[in-house]
Design a protein that fits this description.
Elements lengths: L1 H7 L6 E5 L5 E7 L2 E7 L16 H14 L4 H16 L10 H11 L1
Antiparallel strand pairs: 1-2, 2-3
């Protein structure tokens, strides 16, 4: 459980993000000895979308998170990007259904 990790984590670990698939993600941030945790909902399907295959969704989440953080997004906005990338991966077959660079740019621009 996340509580066990945060209770035992080394002092240099100050931020933990746990992706939980359709249940969204959890962000825990340490301030001294106190951890605060917030839930971030998963990206939602539109009426014309459906989940085809979840293979690679976690990798998509990590890639979206890293990409958004590299653009200096806040952690909360980076988690939103990550969730949308993970959802995009699920709309196609297999782990190779990632958004194009132009789609990533548009997604990030919509949040900035």
């Amino acid at each position: 459980p996340l509580h066990d990790f945060t209770a035992e984590s080394p002092p240099n670990i100050t931020t933990v993000i746990v992706a939980r698939g359709a249940q969204g993600s959890t962000l825990s941030v340490r301030n001294g000895d106190v951890w605060s945790t917030t839930h971030h909902p998963a990206a939602q399907l539109t009426d014309d979308e459906r989940i085809i295959d979840t293979t690679g969704a976690g990798d998509g989440f990590q890639a979206g998170l890293a990409y958004a953080l590299s653009l200096n997004f806040t952690i909360a906005d980076a988690i939103t990007v990550a969730s949308k990338v993970a959802l995009h991966v699920c709309l196609g077959i297999g782990a190779g259904h990632y958004p194009s660079p132009s789609a990533m740019h548009a997604l990030c621009k919509s949040l900035s």
